[in-house]
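chain below, 385 aa
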Amino acid sequence: MPKVEHLVYGDRKVFTVSAFNRGIGLHLGRLPPLWVEGEITELRRNDAWANVFVTLKDPKTGATLNVTIGRRSYDRLELDLSEGETVHVAGRAEIYEQKAELGLRATTIERIGLGGHLLALEQLKRKLAAEGLFAAERKRRLPRVPRAVGILTGADAAARGDLVATIGARFPATKVVVREARVQGKGAAAAIVSALDELAAHPEVDVVVLARGGGSFEDLLPFSEETVVRAVAASRVPVVSAVGHEQDTPLCDLAADARAATPTAAGALVVPDLVELASVLTGARRRLGLAVRAQLERDRGRLTRQGERLRSAPRLVLERRRAALDRSGARLQTLSPLATLSRGYAIVRAGGDALRSVAEAQTGDRLDIQLAAGSLTARVDEVRP
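prediction:
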């Protein structure tokens, strides 16, 4: 075993912090490998890291242990572990010398089955999903400008304060109705359902926010109770879930109409930003004014063109009519008997009727002959067929 160097001050042997930690590590390294059972409360893996970091928790006492395992060794196990599962971990005790943090260097991990709570939640999740409670098509749109926002929270002043402050800063006209309820431990589920029903029945509340700060897996269990999930899905008004941290997913998140990672984010979801809204309205007013002026210009131009057409229309009509009359006159002139007479022809009448054949005249008949200029009277001396 390597020797840990020390300093000598008279009759004292003094170890530096680093030497002390290194010595503890050397002693821990002499311990035999062992198995540890615990519930996963945190698992961090990244392709860029050499190790996977796991936090194990004793569900009875709350004691925790940091576990490190090589990423490739972990990937070869193909466990696809998630938080809440109970596992057996084999490894050796070690100490992180820089901070004197005790941990376990794992060689393998074995799943020993889902914890009781997690198994029950998975079964409930599948059951409610099959009923359509988590379906995207049943989720409602949040009101654009709610009259009042209902806030269901526990004795969590921070979550309530963040929500109230965010709503007040973004849209002061919206009222806030707060109902405190027991949110963890025995009776929490019934208290949550009762407070939610009360807020949903409020005549001015248009949306409800479930707000609770972070907590352990067990602390958040009431928000996964079947009665709570069904109450969220059946709420008269839309519900926003802001329960736990971003990585927490209680079943009420799946049934809610929207989910927010934090109370501040929930406040931004349920009310518009007054400054932003005023800016949008100003822009819309400006665009509307421009559109109205452009429409007026188009209408004015159209009316001007129509006026010009109306003023010129009578002249155009007269011109077209005059041209038509000229064409008709020319055709009539062409077809007129006078035009024919002017070319040297004559019209011969007997008894007032124009002669078309010699058979219509007899010797001795008196004839009237019309020429282009004047007329003559003649008598038939001879008829030649």
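The chain is about 40% helix and 25% strand. The longest strand covers residues 101-114.
thats it, cya
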